[in-house]
Design a protein that fits this description.
The structure holds 2 protein chains of 2 kinds. By secondary structure, chain A is of the alpha/beta class. Chain A has 11 helices and 14 strands. In chain A, the strands form 3 sheets. A 6-stranded mixed beta sheet of chain A has the order 6-7-8-3-9-10, sandwiched between helices. In chain A, a hairpin with a 2-residue loop joins strand 1 and strand 2. The longest helix of chain A has 18 residues. By secondary structure, chain B is mostly helical. Chain B has one domain. In chain B, strand 1 and strand 2 form a beta hairpin. The chains are: A alpha/beta, B mainly alpha. The interface between A and B is medium-sized, with 32 and 24 residues.
């Protein structure tokens, strides 16, 4: 598997205090990678180190084979980023802003700018001053700015911040398109769990400057319905049978059980045979949020 | 690099504040022209038919001053020698002193407005780096495949270009206003300069352009300082405040100190007025043009080293 970004035991010390305590992870080509963590976990600091706004205290960051520490220009050439809010020159028009960034790269044609503007859907307003833009439009202009030089890696800090549901969906679809069609990789950071769940392929959970775990989102979703809640009357001897075959937990109104969906009819049959009243059976979806709280609690 | 400078130029010129500055500049020149015209019409220049006698009298005074004070002050000696040479030349070539107002005298008088060109340049210099921080755009600016030094350098060059731009506006505009209000001089006017022990006649326009540049040395240095403060502390109000304070008080304070202490000659402001080496007396005895230039270069180097070193090093947390 080809890696677009690799962090190797990256540490950041500010005034003697270790803010990032040895982060190592890598992002594959064409994937959307989420950085998830509570406020102050070090997501933004990590992003700032990747894009060279902050110095790396120890360890190294490799972007497409180039070290951010030693070969900054070549490494950053492959990155398009929005760090925190997409702040633009408000007294310039959207187009003039893009021209500013185009002039700082080599060989960006007017056609390329037009193409990017079209992609983010700012055609109608691109010649208006940025101060008249809504937050969502600024977000899109920020995205356009990232894409001008066809980077391999997009880094978006809170990309859906301030967007309405339609806008969020648009960004999501758009990121999917970029990763699928152009093979770009994307790093998004957020504390909005449901958002991350829908957007990302893999998620790294960061807490207090440490990597807690890296999870495939699919496996989380597959895991989801493994728990079922049974609301029943008194169980009596059925309990022993259940405990013999399944992992279960007694609760006030019945029990929760870990099993496959296909096991449910068999369990219900067994309960009916033993004359146990069943009031309801429902799957308990274990959301990313539960998982996140589980991981970060420890 | 050219593109970066173009970027910086656009970022300044597209702001309303900059357009205001240019507007104020134009108004000042026109206002100053009208005022000068009014004063000139109130007190017409006296016809001076026996200018030769007047100059001979002045020559006598100069000669006696040279003998008295020139003996123990090298700079004053130089000054009087220059004055005497020029006046003798005037008598010999029969060049009467200029009394009437014309466009070039107005351009010369407009030098008083260079302070405003300086003021505006300093304001631009002070905001150059710090406003990128306050706008938050520094984060997008520094994640390009360009070194921070290059970006900082392009900002500095742009400031110099704006300084030059304001000076040009002032010069050209006062030439135009001067021409419209006072007309061109009756005869071709030349400037009498004393160089390498002899008097030479110089083209007035070129002489004045050189004057404008020479008297902008203090603006250059203070703008550089404002730029440094802005790059290091990222606070434009501090950069503007401190720089303007020095611009307005620096010269006076240095003059006061210069009469008492010899070390004053190493101060920035003792060296910023380079015109004294051509037409006046330097503040401290024994100072020369090359001494001043070296001092200025040392100050520039210190400002730049500090600005570049700290700007390159710092983490951007804004």
């Amino acid at each position: 598997m080809e890696y677009v970004l690799a962090l190797d035991n990256v540490k950041k010390k500010i005034k003697g205090q270790e803010i990032i305590k040895g982060l190592s992870f890598s992002v594959k080509k064409g994937e959307i990678f989420g950085l998830l963590g509570p406020n102050g976990a070090g997501k933004t600091t990590t992003i700032r180190m990747i894009v060279g706004l902050m110095e790396i205290s120890s360890g190294d960051i490799i972007v497409c084979g180039k070290s951010v520490k030693k070969d900054f220009s070549k490494a950053i050439q492959q990155i398009g980023a929005i760090v925190e809010n997409p702040e633009m020159y408000k007294f310039l028009t959207g187009y003039q802003n893009l021209l500013q960034y185009a002039r700082m790269q080599k060989n960006i044609s007017r056609e390329k700018i037009a193409e990017v503007v079209e992609l983010v859907g700012l055609n109608e307003r691109i010649h208006d001053k940025v101060k008249t833009y809504s937050l969502g439009m600024r977000q899109r202009l920020g995205l356009a700015q990232c894409l001008l030089h066809d980077p391999q890696l997009l880094i978006l800090d809170e990309p859906t911040n301030g967007l309405d549901p339609a806008g969020i969906r648009e960004i999501r679809d758009y990121l999917r398109k970029l990763t699928h069609e152009k093979g770009m990789s994307v790093i998004v950071s957020s504390h909005l769990l449901s958002e991350m769940e829908m957007m990302c392929d893999r998620i790294a959970i960061i807490q207090k400057g440490e990597l807690k775990e890296v999870q495939e989102v699919n496996s989380l979703i597959n895991d989801k319905h493994i728990l079922y809640a049974f609301e029943t009357g008194s169980l009596g001897e059925a309990m022993q049978w259940l405990q013999k075959h399944y992992e279960l937990k007694k609760v006030d109104s019945g029990f929760t059980i870990k099993c496959q969906k296909t096991d449910i009819p068999a369990i219900i049959n067994q309960l009916i045979e033993r004359n146990i009243a069943i009031y309801s059976v429902k799957p308990i979806s274990k959301t990313l949020e539960d998982h996140f709280l589980e991981v970060t609690a420890g | 690099m050219g593109n970066l400078i173009l970027n910086e130029w656009i970022k300044v010129i597209r702001r309303k504040a900059t357009l205001c500055m240019i507007g104020i500049m134009i108004l000042f020149v026109i206002g100053f022209g009208v005022l000068t015209k009014f004063m000139d019409s109130q007190t017409p220049a006296p016809e001076n038919n026996n200018w030769k006698q007047t100059i001979e009298k002045q020559l006598e005074n100069d000669r006696s001053s040279l003998e008295q004070t020139g003996a123990n002050n090298a700079n004053l000696k130089m000054y009087y020698e220059r004055q005497i040479a020029i006046k003798e030349y005037q008598l010999k070539q029969e060049i009467p002193p200029q009394n009437e107002m014309h466009m070039w005298t107005f351009v010369e008088d407009s030098q008083a407005l260079i302070t405003f060109a300086g003021l505006f340049t300093i304001i631009i210099a002070a905001g150059s780096v710090s406003s990128e921080f306050s706008w938050g755009t520094i984060k997008l600016l520094l994640i390009r495949p360009l070194s921070r030094s290059k970006i900082l350098l392009s900002k500095y060059v742009t400031i110099l270009l704006y300084g030059l731009f304001f000076l040009t506006i002032l010069f050209v505009l006062s030439a135009i206003v001067g021409f419209l209000l006072f007309g061109a001089p009756a005869d071709t006017v030349t400037y009498l300069a004393f160089a390498n022990g002899e008097v030479v006649e110089r083209n007035m326009a070129i002489h004045l352009a050189a004057q404008y540049l020479l008297s902008s040395a203090d603006v250059l240095l203070i703008a550089t300082m404002a730029f440094m403060i802005s790059a290091i502390f990222r606070i434009s109000s501090l950069a503007i405040g401190l720089s303007l304070f020095l611009l307005f008080t620096g010269n006076t304070a240095t003059m006061l100190l210069a009469s008492k202490f010899e070390w004053t000659k190493y101060l920035l402001f003792a060296n910023t007025n380079l015109t004294v080496y051509f037409d006046g007396v330097p503040p401290v005895d024994g100072m020369t043009l090359s001494f001043s230039i070296i001092v200025l270069i040392v100050y520039l180097a210190i400002f730049h080293t500090l600005a570049f070193a700290l700007f390159n090093k710092r983490d951007i947390a804004a």
